[in-house]
Amino acid sequence: MEAENSLVLVALDDEKVAGYSYSLIIGTSNLEDRAKYGCIHDLFITETHRRKGLGDKMVSEIVKWFRLNDIHRVELDILAQNQVASSFWKKQGFADFKHTLYRLL
Ligand SMILES: CC(C)(COP(=O)(O)OP(=O)(O)OC[C@H]1O[C@@H](n2cnc3c(N)ncnc32)[C@H](O)[C@@H]1OP(=O)(O)O)[C@@H](O)C(=O)NCCC(=O)NCCS
Per CATH, which fold does 6-91 belong to? Predict the structure, then answer.
């Protein structure tokens, strides 16, 4: 949480946690500078606080932090069946980039 290349945000409603996010910068060594990109690892808003613009506010703060750190590309993963997340991220300007396939052995 205290690492320079990560950002943890917590949204509070009075003293109660209404949501949190965890973002990080990947590829921070000098050698990898050209490959540096941002990753939003977690974003969660508690059920009673959803659909009130809190997720949107959280993303704005995360994007501000990435820009301050000279990051110009952001990636994140969502579960294929998570329609709400898909609709949320598309509204935030994200586009499909890769699909992960799996098979049980
Ligand atoms: C996805 C999530 C973070 C959205 O947070 P939120 O605070 O409810 O989002 P906002 O209020 O900022 O919504 C912005 C837009 O997202 C989309 N959206 C949000 N909830 C939606 C829903 N239930 N159905 C369809 N679209 C939805 C809409 O486009 C919405 O805009 P609108 O209200 O003008 O239609 C929240 O639903 C959540 O925590 N879900 C569980 C965890 C998760 O799936 N996280 C994402 C994967 S990392």
Answer: Aminopeptidase (3.40.630)
